[in-house]
Amino acid sequence: MQQSRLDSVHCPTIVLPPMERAKSEGEPVTEPPEGRLSVELVGPRVVLREPRLDDAPALLAAFGDPEVVRYMAIPVQTLETEQQYLKSAMAEAQRNPRREFHLAVALRASGAVIGMARISISSVEHLRGDVGYGIRRDLWNRGYTTEALTCLVNLASRSWACGA
Ligand SMILES: CC(C)(COP(=O)(O)OP(=O)(O)OC[C@H]1O[C@@H](n2cnc3c(N)ncnc32)[C@H](O)[C@@H]1OP(=O)(O)O)[C@@H](O)C(=O)NCCC(=O)NCCS
Fold this sequence. Notes:
This protein has six helices and six strands; from the N terminus they run αβαββαααβββα. By secondary structure, it is of the alpha+beta class. The chain has one domain: Aminopeptidase (3-Layer(aba) Sandwich), CATH 3.40.630.30. Strands 1-2-3-4-5-6 form a six-stranded antiparallel sheet, sandwiched between helices.
């Protein structure tokens, strides 16, 4: 994806859960919220939210497709492997500080989950990390992943999100 395209995407907002939101009202968030960090990232057309176990069938529509996993380091997924993945992603979300954000990518208009996007922070000191993403093949080339990545970069730019 071209950097210029990424830059041109509307800046997303990060929606914090009620407790953290209350703390951050009126001023920028500069400290990590206490306890479990749960995020919702809102882009123009997509929302990245914490995954749930019942997202498995929707994710299967993406990662059960051989074309989608072709260049990924995972085999074609089954409902069972999707459920296992979701359980590990949800367990990862309990960590504090949290270095891995595996988020379901959903369409804002319908709430339908179309894939997953992840950012993993490997070095807080050097602001280093990597991202991964995949969405349903019938929805490729509409700019949804560009939006999702913009959300993830925005999240990583918050130092508290990286446990700094
Ligand atoms: C890689 C993948 C996630 C991209 O998803 P996508 O939603 O199609 O990506 P986008 O639509 O944002 O970008 C794809 C192209 O559409 C273009 N595009 C079309 N409409 C756009 C819009 N409205 N806004 C921004 N870009 C748009 C982008 O510029 C980009 O063009 P490019 O390939 O020439 O750079 C998807 O192909 C996929 O799931 N692949 C299988 C999994 C995979 O390989 N993942 C990567 C390894 S982890």
